[in-house]
Amino acid sequence: MKEVAERIKAYLEKDKTGIRRELLLILLEGGKYTTSEIYEILKGKGYGVNQKGVSAMIGIIGSRIGIIKSEAGDKKRYYLKKEYLQLVREIVEADL
After folding, report:
1. Are the C-beta atoms of residues 87 and 1 closer than 8 Å to each other?
2. Residue 87: what pLDDT?
3. Number of domain units in the chain
4. Contact 38, 23 (CB under 8 A)
5. Distance CA 16, CA 36 (A)
6. What CATH number has the domain bearing residue 21?
7. pTM as predicted
8. Fewer Cβ within 10 Å of end Cβ, the chain: N or C?
9. Which domain holds residue 38?
10. Whole-angstrom Cα distance, residue 73 to residue 65?
């Protein structure tokens, strides 16, 4: 758990615009989202991002940090693994 916390903190330290933190906040809402849905939410909040950028962020969070699961279907839906919800919440909200 400590290793995951360090990876999350390192990921957020490179967050110049706040978009990475915002993405984690969206996932903390507990829903399951497609990359298109996340893109629309971020765009609606005024972030200058494209769909490929959102896919890249999801990929990094899933592969390097390991806190996201995907659900197959018509389109893949992504969500935070339950065992990391509290940890992510504590880290993300610590700097708000």
Report:
1. yes
2. 96
3. 1
4. yes
5. 22
6. 1.10.10.10
7. 0.91
8. C
9. 2-94
10. 23
